[in-house]
Design a protein that fits this description.
The complex is a heterodimer. By secondary structure, chain A is mainly beta. Chain A is built from 5 helices and 22 strands. Chain A has 2 domains: about 45-125, membrane protein fhac (Ubiquitin-like (UB roll)), CATH 3.10.20.310; about 180-455, membrane protein fhac: a member of the omp85/tpsb transporter family (Porin), CATH 2.40.160.50. Chain A is globular. Chain B is mainly alpha-helical. The chains are: A mainly beta, B mainly alpha. Chain A: Belongs to the SAM50/omp85 family.
Chain lengths: ~450, ~270
Amino acid sequence: MGTVHARSLDPLPMQGPELGVQADDMDLGEPEQEEKQEVLENKDVVVQHVHIDGLGRTKEDILTYEVADVFRAKNLIDVMKKSHEARQKLLRLGIFRHVEVVIDTTEGADALPNGLDVTFEVKELRRMTGSYNTMVGNNEGSMVLGLKLPNVFGRAEKLTFQFSYGTKETSYGLSFFKPQPGHFERNFSINLYKVTGQFPWSSLRETDRGVSTEFSFPIWRTNHTLKWEGVWRELGCLARTASFSVREESGHSLKSSLSHTMVIDTRNSTILPRKGALLKINQELAGYTGGDVSFLKEDFEIQLNKTLFWDSVRCCGGNYCLCLFIAVFYLGGPTSVRGYSMYSIGPQSEGDYLGGEAFWAGGLHLYTPLPFRPGRGGFGELFRTHFFLNAGNLCNLNYGEGPRAHLSKLAECIRWSYGAGIVLRLGNIARLELNYCIPMGVQSGDRICDGVQFGAGIRFL
Amino acid sequence: MSLAAEAFVSQIAAAEPWPENATLYQPLKEDQILLSDSASSLAVQTFLRMCGLPVLVSCRANAEYMSPSGKVPFIHVGNQVVSELGLIVQFTKAKGHSLSDGLDDVQRAEMKAYMELVNNMLLTAELYIQWCDDYTATEISRPRYSSPYSWPLNHILAYQKQWEVRRKMNAIGWSGKSLEQVYEDVSQCCQALSQRLGTQPYFFNKQPTELDALVFGHLFTILTTQLTNDELAEKVKSYTNLLSFCHRIEQAYFKEHDRESQSGSSRHSKGSLP
């Protein structure tokens, strides 16, 4: 028998700690031999050798786990399937540019008559990739330098560094990621960062310098993450006319917190999913490991998607967050309750929004393809029209009363809005929206944005 | 302060009368405040008492960061926030209260000159002793400055402040001076003040002005604050008319609060005059 090439599929994006695998529309490649299919299926084979060609600095011991399954294949179709799965696993390590699979009969002294050799031809990513950009915006110009070192020590460790030097602010981030050999879903990472932000809706300027370590591991079908974070936060007033409540918050504080997140994600895409559900529960406890800030924060997020007739998708989602002792949550804007200005719901003082200690928000969306389907199958697939109904409320807790009073407080004065718009998906990361919104249930002090509202972001309600 | 900013402050200030709940913010009195800040705060409090304007004193750990200019003390009046004695004097003048109205132009210029002398000499000397003298910085200034914060933030902030003050000393040429020279400068400054005061009750004869408030704030704090050694206090004590000046103002404006200031005294501040 001559050489049999397993047809290589289009390269899929690598899985790393920041991107999700683009798993939609993924089909298993079927071999083309229709006439010979019956014969091959019945033929028992034994995989004798598995080679990996093209390794440079990658250590072999981590790769043996990924390809171990191939040895268990019993017939040819099985070999192809398992090789394909092994190829997926090798790609998700994030250290290879591409992986080709070659299946051949064994040759040599110890060759069995039905023995097969599987060879993975890999090309490693370059040792270091860098990028350099300049950005101008918001009355500030900045230079951004990025460095990425995939596979630093040979076992799929990844080191990334980003540095932004601007006319007003400087920020940086350094991150080291290491998966456990053989169990890529179990990994840990260490991050060091400094970020600055300006929040004109609260007249606040914030600089955070922090270090964090996190461990991720799967348990059954859920994914858990344990994280310790230490942050030095510096708050300042953005303008001389900031309200006194905001001025009182200025200064330095140190937060040391432990947090735990559990995620169950069965959606087929993070942006505009067609089916699946997401459940995310996050707890954060600060103050017991040092620092001078104490709080307990809870965060629940749920999203359900279902495809209806005519290619439309119904999506409903909700989010509930609670934080004891500190007002940290903001609500409103094109990424949460549409129809309201950015983070402009809830308690405010002299025009500055102070945030609240608890909030809930929910949304019901109906996504349909563009009317008359222009650009079908190509560019037009990135767009969707959507009809939405959003609702939410933000308030401060009253510690004297019980949970029932808290729930009733969140249930009164609900802000909600409805409308329609167009959504554009950017890659697998972000989303742009242009909506016509009608806000309802507006309370005094909220700032609304009725009519056309534009939004860009990563996480939307 | 620029001309435009002055006009802005005056216009806003003149609109409303002095409210009852005007508040002065300073760092924590017991554990945090340092000599220079305490002196500035006392100067402002004395000035407001001399004007007969009520003010509540509120101590906050982040007072320095709350202040619009980064310096303490600052006052919150109505919805205005004003920091430092010079600006506060202008602010109260816009509201119709002033201590230096009776002075003619020559005297006013003289008053400004002496206030500059106190700021450039006494205040700078206080800052030097606090932050540039290693022993004082290690024993007193850094522990006190960073007391409200937890590890490691306390060390970071204390060293940041120390470097900032040392850079400033470098810029004005004081970093080459030794401690002895600084004490000598303080002595000379006190001599100039003593000569100007002479035997009068206040610097401009019968009525106190903001200069009296400023000088009292600094001298009283120097006399009642315990540093690593008593040399600074001794320099001031050697001028008897300055001592009696401090006594006089303490009696006149702080008598009813004597009990309060004594009970609030700590290892750092000795409370009343010796």
